[in-house]
Amino acid sequence: MTTVLSPDELEAKLRGVGATRYHNLHRFHRALHDGKLDRTQVQAWALNRYYYQAQIPAKDATLLARLPTPELRREWRRRIEDHDGSAPGEGGVARWLKLTDGLGLSRDYVTSLEGLLPTTRFAVEAYVHFVRDRSILEAIASSLTELFSPTIISERVSGMLRHYDFVSEETLAYFTPRLTQAPRDSDFALDYVRTHATTAEQQAAVVAALEFKCNVLWSMLDALDYSYVLGYRGPGVFAGPETPGAFAS
User: Fold this and answer.
1) Is the per-residue pLDDT at 158 higher than 70?
2) How many CA atoms does the CB half-sphere of 16 hold within 13 Å?
3) pLDDT digits over 43-60, tens only?
Protein backbone atom coordinates (compact mmCIF):
# COMPACT_ATOMS: atom_id res chain seq x y z
CA MET A 1 0.00 0.00 0.00
CA THR A 2 1.59 3.24 -1.19
CA THR A 3 -1.50 5.42 -1.62
CA VAL A 4 -3.34 6.84 1.36
CA LEU A 5 -6.88 5.46 1.49
CA SER A 6 -9.91 7.37 2.65
CA PRO A 7 -11.43 6.07 5.91
CA ASP A 8 -14.19 4.36 3.92
CA GLU A 9 -11.67 2.75 1.57
CA LEU A 10 -9.63 1.55 4.52
CA GLU A 11 -12.71 0.07 6.16
CA ALA A 12 -13.60 -1.70 2.93
CA LYS A 13 -10.10 -3.18 2.78
CA LEU A 14 -10.35 -4.39 6.37
CA ARG A 15 -13.73 -5.95 5.73
CA GLY A 16 -12.22 -7.62 2.68
CA VAL A 17 -9.72 -9.34 4.97
CA GLY A 18 -12.61 -10.86 6.88
CA ALA A 19 -14.36 -11.91 3.69
CA THR A 20 -11.34 -13.91 2.55
CA ARG A 21 -9.45 -14.89 5.71
CA TYR A 22 -11.87 -15.22 8.62
CA HIS A 23 -12.05 -18.71 10.05
CA ASN A 24 -15.72 -19.21 9.25
CA LEU A 25 -14.32 -20.38 5.89
CA HIS A 26 -12.19 -23.13 7.47
CA ARG A 27 -13.30 -26.71 6.83
CA PHE A 28 -13.11 -27.62 10.54
CA HIS A 29 -15.45 -24.74 11.31
CA ARG A 30 -17.84 -25.92 8.63
CA ALA A 31 -17.72 -29.46 9.98
CA LEU A 32 -18.37 -28.25 13.54
CA HIS A 33 -21.42 -26.24 12.57
CA ASP A 34 -22.77 -28.79 10.11
CA GLY A 35 -22.84 -31.63 12.63
CA LYS A 36 -20.02 -33.58 10.99
CA LEU A 37 -17.88 -33.99 14.12
CA ASP A 38 -18.14 -36.57 16.88
CA ARG A 39 -18.23 -35.77 20.58
CA THR A 40 -14.47 -36.14 21.07
CA GLN A 41 -13.77 -33.73 18.22
CA VAL A 42 -16.17 -31.14 19.67
CA GLN A 43 -14.58 -31.60 23.09
CA ALA A 44 -11.14 -31.06 21.57
CA TRP A 45 -12.34 -27.82 19.96
CA ALA A 46 -13.78 -26.50 23.24
CA LEU A 47 -10.73 -27.55 25.23
CA ASN A 48 -8.27 -25.85 22.90
CA ARG A 49 -10.42 -22.76 22.42
CA TYR A 50 -10.51 -22.34 26.22
CA TYR A 51 -6.88 -21.25 26.20
CA TYR A 52 -7.66 -18.54 23.65
CA GLN A 53 -10.63 -17.32 25.71
CA ALA A 54 -8.64 -17.36 28.95
CA GLN A 55 -5.80 -15.33 27.47
CA ILE A 56 -7.98 -12.60 25.95
CA PRO A 57 -8.14 -10.57 29.20
CA ALA A 58 -4.39 -11.00 29.67
CA LYS A 59 -3.88 -9.74 26.12
CA ASP A 60 -6.14 -6.78 26.77
CA ALA A 61 -4.37 -5.97 30.02
CA THR A 62 -1.05 -5.58 28.18
CA LEU A 63 -2.68 -3.00 25.93
CA LEU A 64 -4.55 -1.28 28.76
CA ALA A 65 -1.25 -0.55 30.49
CA ARG A 66 -0.03 1.35 27.42
CA LEU A 67 -3.10 3.41 26.59
CA PRO A 68 -2.41 7.12 27.12
CA THR A 69 -5.78 8.52 28.22
CA PRO A 70 -8.42 7.69 30.84
CA GLU A 71 -11.04 7.56 28.08
CA LEU A 72 -9.18 4.87 26.17
CA ARG A 73 -8.38 2.94 29.34
CA ARG A 74 -12.02 2.96 30.45
CA GLU A 75 -13.08 1.66 27.06
CA TRP A 76 -10.54 -1.15 27.02
CA ARG A 77 -11.05 -2.03 30.69
CA ARG A 78 -14.63 -2.99 29.83
CA ARG A 79 -13.31 -5.78 27.61
CA ILE A 80 -11.39 -7.27 30.51
CA GLU A 81 -14.48 -7.12 32.71
CA ASP A 82 -16.52 -8.81 29.98
CA HIS A 83 -14.17 -11.80 30.00
CA ASP A 84 -13.02 -11.95 33.63
CA GLY A 85 -16.29 -10.78 35.19
CA SER A 86 -16.55 -8.64 38.30
CA ALA A 87 -17.00 -11.59 40.68
CA PRO A 88 -16.15 -15.31 40.70
CA GLY A 89 -18.27 -17.30 38.27
CA GLU A 90 -19.04 -14.30 36.06
CA GLY A 91 -17.71 -13.28 32.66
CA GLY A 92 -16.88 -14.95 29.40
CA VAL A 93 -14.11 -17.21 30.67
CA ALA A 94 -16.43 -18.64 33.36
CA ARG A 95 -19.14 -19.16 30.74
CA TRP A 96 -16.67 -21.01 28.50
CA LEU A 97 -15.94 -23.37 31.39
CA LYS A 98 -19.66 -24.05 31.59
CA LEU A 99 -19.41 -25.10 27.95
CA THR A 100 -16.57 -27.54 28.68
CA ASP A 101 -18.48 -28.72 31.77
CA GLY A 102 -21.50 -29.37 29.60
CA LEU A 103 -19.40 -31.42 27.22
CA GLY A 104 -18.35 -33.65 30.11
CA LEU A 105 -14.78 -32.42 30.51
CA SER A 106 -13.20 -32.09 33.92
CA ARG A 107 -12.77 -28.43 34.81
CA ASP A 108 -9.45 -29.17 36.52
CA TYR A 109 -8.22 -30.87 33.36
CA VAL A 110 -9.33 -27.99 31.13
CA THR A 111 -7.71 -25.30 33.27
CA SER A 112 -4.51 -27.32 33.70
CA LEU A 113 -3.90 -26.90 29.93
CA GLU A 114 -2.38 -30.38 29.91
CA GLY A 115 -4.22 -31.52 26.81
CA LEU A 116 -3.58 -28.50 24.57
CA LEU A 117 -2.27 -28.92 21.08
CA PRO A 118 1.17 -27.27 20.76
CA THR A 119 -0.08 -25.09 17.90
CA THR A 120 -2.87 -23.74 20.13
CA ARG A 121 -0.37 -22.66 22.74
CA PHE A 122 2.01 -21.10 20.21
CA ALA A 123 -0.75 -19.29 18.30
CA VAL A 124 -2.44 -17.83 21.37
CA GLU A 125 0.83 -16.71 22.91
CA ALA A 126 1.89 -15.14 19.60
CA TYR A 127 -1.30 -13.07 19.70
CA VAL A 128 -0.68 -11.95 23.30
CA HIS A 129 2.89 -10.98 22.38
CA PHE A 130 1.73 -9.14 19.26
CA VAL A 131 -0.62 -6.94 21.25
CA ARG A 132 2.02 -6.38 23.92
CA ASP A 133 4.83 -5.47 21.54
CA ARG A 134 3.31 -3.72 18.53
CA SER A 135 2.00 -0.17 18.29
CA ILE A 136 -1.27 0.74 19.97
CA LEU A 137 -2.80 1.22 16.53
CA GLU A 138 -1.78 -2.28 15.38
CA ALA A 139 -2.90 -3.82 18.67
CA ILE A 140 -6.36 -2.27 18.38
CA ALA A 141 -6.62 -3.22 14.71
CA SER A 142 -5.88 -6.85 15.53
CA SER A 143 -9.12 -6.99 17.53
CA LEU A 144 -11.19 -6.23 14.44
CA THR A 145 -12.03 -9.88 13.86
CA GLU A 146 -14.94 -8.90 16.14
CA LEU A 147 -16.43 -7.22 13.08
CA PHE A 148 -17.17 -10.67 11.72
CA SER A 149 -17.95 -12.63 14.89
CA PRO A 150 -21.72 -12.04 15.24
CA THR A 151 -22.33 -13.98 12.03
CA ILE A 152 -20.14 -16.89 13.11
CA ILE A 153 -21.72 -16.92 16.59
CA SER A 154 -25.26 -17.13 15.23
CA GLU A 155 -24.18 -19.89 12.86
CA ARG A 156 -22.35 -21.77 15.62
CA VAL A 157 -25.21 -21.72 18.11
CA SER A 158 -27.95 -22.66 15.66
CA GLY A 159 -25.84 -25.34 13.97
CA MET A 160 -24.64 -26.99 17.16
CA LEU A 161 -28.10 -26.99 18.74
CA ARG A 162 -29.54 -28.52 15.60
CA HIS A 163 -26.96 -31.24 15.12
CA TYR A 164 -25.59 -32.30 18.52
CA ASP A 165 -27.79 -33.84 21.19
CA PHE A 166 -25.02 -33.37 23.77
CA VAL A 167 -25.21 -29.54 23.72
CA SER A 168 -27.96 -27.25 24.96
CA GLU A 169 -28.73 -23.54 25.11
CA GLU A 170 -27.28 -23.53 28.63
CA THR A 171 -24.09 -25.20 27.40
CA LEU A 172 -23.72 -22.50 24.74
CA ALA A 173 -24.54 -19.59 27.06
CA TYR A 174 -21.10 -18.04 26.44
CA PHE A 175 -22.19 -16.83 23.04
CA THR A 176 -25.34 -14.85 23.87
CA PRO A 177 -23.63 -11.80 25.46
CA ARG A 178 -21.04 -11.76 22.67
CA LEU A 179 -23.77 -10.92 20.16
CA THR A 180 -23.95 -7.44 21.73
CA GLN A 181 -20.45 -7.12 23.19
CA ALA A 182 -18.58 -7.86 19.96
CA PRO A 183 -20.38 -5.21 17.83
CA ARG A 184 -19.92 -2.61 20.58
CA ASP A 185 -16.21 -3.37 20.81
CA SER A 186 -15.65 -3.55 17.06
CA ASP A 187 -17.48 -0.24 16.50
CA PHE A 188 -15.03 1.47 18.86
CA ALA A 189 -11.96 -0.24 17.41
CA LEU A 190 -13.01 0.46 13.83
CA ASP A 191 -13.62 4.13 14.56
CA TYR A 192 -10.21 4.36 16.24
CA VAL A 193 -8.46 2.77 13.25
CA ARG A 194 -10.35 4.91 10.73
CA THR A 195 -9.37 8.04 12.67
CA HIS A 196 -5.74 7.25 13.48
CA ALA A 197 -4.46 5.27 10.48
CA THR A 198 -3.80 8.32 8.32
CA THR A 199 -0.63 7.38 6.42
CA ALA A 200 -0.06 4.65 3.86
CA GLU A 201 2.38 2.99 6.27
CA GLN A 202 -0.11 3.01 9.14
CA GLN A 203 -2.89 1.72 6.92
CA ALA A 204 -0.73 -1.13 5.67
CA ALA A 205 0.14 -1.95 9.28
CA VAL A 206 -3.46 -2.16 10.45
CA VAL A 207 -4.44 -4.37 7.51
CA ALA A 208 -1.47 -6.64 8.29
CA ALA A 209 -2.48 -6.71 11.96
CA LEU A 210 -5.96 -7.95 11.08
CA GLU A 211 -4.50 -10.53 8.69
CA PHE A 212 -2.21 -11.72 11.49
CA LYS A 213 -5.16 -12.17 13.86
CA CYS A 214 -7.08 -14.09 11.21
CA ASN A 215 -4.01 -16.32 10.78
CA VAL A 216 -3.96 -16.99 14.54
CA LEU A 217 -7.55 -18.24 14.48
CA TRP A 218 -7.05 -20.16 11.23
CA SER A 219 -3.94 -21.93 12.49
CA MET A 220 -5.80 -23.13 15.58
CA LEU A 221 -8.38 -24.81 13.35
CA ASP A 222 -5.64 -26.21 11.12
CA ALA A 223 -4.19 -27.95 14.17
CA LEU A 224 -7.56 -29.32 15.27
CA ASP A 225 -8.27 -30.60 11.76
CA TYR A 226 -4.85 -32.23 11.43
CA SER A 227 -5.01 -33.83 14.87
CA TYR A 228 -8.66 -34.83 15.29
CA VAL A 229 -10.05 -35.21 11.77
CA LEU A 230 -7.03 -36.47 9.85
CA GLY A 231 -5.86 -38.30 12.97
CA TYR A 232 -2.24 -37.14 13.21
CA ARG A 233 -2.32 -36.48 16.92
CA GLY A 234 0.92 -35.95 18.80
CA PRO A 235 1.87 -37.23 22.25
CA GLY A 236 0.39 -35.85 25.44
CA VAL A 237 -2.61 -34.07 23.95
CA PHE A 238 -6.28 -34.72 24.63
CA ALA A 239 -7.27 -38.07 23.13
CA GLY A 240 -10.89 -38.50 24.18
CA PRO A 241 -12.08 -41.22 26.58
CA GLU A 242 -8.59 -42.71 26.91
CA THR A 243 -7.19 -39.50 28.44
CA PRO A 244 -6.66 -39.90 32.21
CA GLY A 245 -8.39 -37.22 34.26
CA ALA A 246 -10.04 -35.52 31.28
CA PHE A 247 -13.63 -36.25 32.24
CA ALA A 248 -15.79 -35.20 35.15
CA SER A 249 -16.67 -38.04 37.47
Assistant:
1) yes
2) 9
3) 999 999 999 999 999 999
Evaluate if pTM is beyond 0.90: yes
Q: Is 162 exposed, middle or buried (0-12, 13-18, 19+ CB in 10 A)?
A: exposed
Burial state string for 55-73 with b = 16 or more CB within 10 A and e = fewer than 16: bbbbbbbebbeebeeeebe
DSSP reduced 3-state for 87: coil
Whether the CB-CB separation of 73 and 67 falls below 8 Å is answered with yes
CB atoms within 10 A of CB 209: 26
φ and ψ at 86, to 5 degrees? -105, 0
Element housing 62 (H / E): helix 39-64
Question: Please, are residues 98 and 28 in contact by the beta-carbon 8 Å criterion?
Answer: no
Q: Is 65 helix (H, G, I), strand (E, B) or coil?
A: coil
What CATH number does the domain located at 12-229 have?
A: 1.20.910.10
Residue 223: per-residue pLDDT: 98
> Domain-by-domain residue ranges, the chain?
12-229
